[in-house]
Design goal:
Keywords: Membrane, Transmembrane, Transmembrane helix. It is rod-shaped and about 85 Å long. About 0% of the residues are buried. It has about 70 residues and is mostly helical. The longest helix has about 45 residues.
């Protein structure tokens, strides 16, 4: 029984698994943080572009590339 306890204490296979779980959780957390940052930046850029085009084209964004209306 003493030999089993000494062997069990010396075995470090479980410790490596815990390390990998912690590292994987950190990587996933960083990926989520990066995605959130990129998503917000893309949303802001889209809104700014829409505002710029609306101002530049006089609010006629829907008529880009459309033929002139005959009067």
């Amino acid at each position: 029984m003493m030999k089993f306890i000494k062997t069990f204490r010396a075995d470090e296979d479980g410790a490596v698994t815990v390390d990998w779980v912690v590292l994987t959780a950190a990587v996933v957390g960083l990926a989520i943080a990066a995605y959130t940052s990129i998503e917000q930046g893309a949303t802001d850029l889209t809104a700014d572009t829409s505002d710029y085009l609306g101002t530049t084209l006089g609010g006629n964004i829907g008529s880009i590339g459309a033929p002139e209306a005959a009067e």
